[in-house]
Amino acid sequence: MVDVLGILAMILGLGLLMVVHEGGHLLVARAFGMRVIKFSIGFGPTIWRHQPKDSPTTYQIAVIPFLAYVQIAGMNPFEENDPDDKGSYANASLTGRLATIIAGPAANYLLASVILFFIFLFAGVPTASRLSMAVEPSSPNMPAAMAGFESGDRITAIDGAAVTTPEEVKKAVVASPNAPLTFTVERDGKPVELTATPMKVGAATLIGVSFKTQIERNAVSFGEAVGLGFTYPAQRAYELVAGLPTAAASMKHAKSDPDKVQLASIWFMLKYGGKLLKEGPVAWFSFLAMISMALAVFNMLPIPALDGGRLMFLGYEAVTRRKPNPKIEAQIHAVGFLMLIGMAVVILTVDMRRSSPEERLQKQLSSEANSAQGADTPAAATPAADPSGAADPSGAADPSGNTVPSGAMPEPRRLPEPGDQPAPALDNGAVAP
Q1: Of 147, 233, 278, 383, which is most buried by a Cβ count within 10 Å?
Q2: Does this model's pTM top 0.70?
Q3: Rounded to the nearest 10 degrees, how much is the dihedral formed by the CA atoms of 365, 366, 368, 370?
């Protein structure tokens, strides 16, 4: 089910990232004396426009509050340029043009650092994670949801026997296939009894819940928060760049198995960010910070139409001491833009064909059940690899598909919270006896 409120919140969050990006271009262009003609938030028909007195810049908001752009005089090579116009980008110094282009990605990186600084300062730095007893129903067609389990229910007893760890719950579930169990859960501070019958799926016994991850945090000083705010996104940026070849190579599975593709579209980002909104502000803003960092990295790639593509041409000018043909450069950027749009459309179609978390679990369990045929005893579900490299203690597949949703971003696995943590299990009763 699509979370409309969460998606709207994510749209506003992404809009903020783009405004910050374009704001970086605007401020530095002005600092070097360039004339900024227009600063627009969104696209489509304009619903609000304002030009301050004695300012050449028109600020506007368009009807679709997504994307943003800044128009600097002299950047369009197909417009006539006055060589004596000191406010033109085309006549600005090489240093000024380089700084103006770099300022957008730099603004995104700085925003990521600022967000993480406040998270580390007020919420602390994550040092460990463990599964709590609070659960989340994984699918409306599974026993837990049909029995009336709700998000946040905390399991305290099964058939009158107290349970204190997820492992005890799993043990009780796998020992009772097709036999009803009475679960006592704590909901809003009050005990509630629910009856669910574990079901067999392949070699596993399930009720259909995931245990929520509880993060343990340590307080840090102001100075430590500042340092971590700058170094943490740098670490993730390095991981992102290092994973680009693998992510690009994963596109070979686009037709045969879209679940293996390590790229995701804007639609995935909206849905995933919307879900994180329910986890609280720390998880949501952490995700937003990581997207801001990813935008900085992505825009610095040497691809025409991106800031990195423009930097290539400025680098050519710096080395050869002569400007490239501006019209040829504009045509190359136009081709690059069309290629990026095409890639985004392809990845969007891949996203639409991805399996849901429940379907991925069913696929995994079916595979395990087939491999277990002929054995004397049922095979245990193989624990999925934890994003940090350790085994997932749940014994179930990662349901979140923690993919950085950007048209060309690899799948960075640990995004919701800064720090190493195992992904929540789709069903913690997914281990067969």
Answers
A1: 233
A2: yes
A3: 160
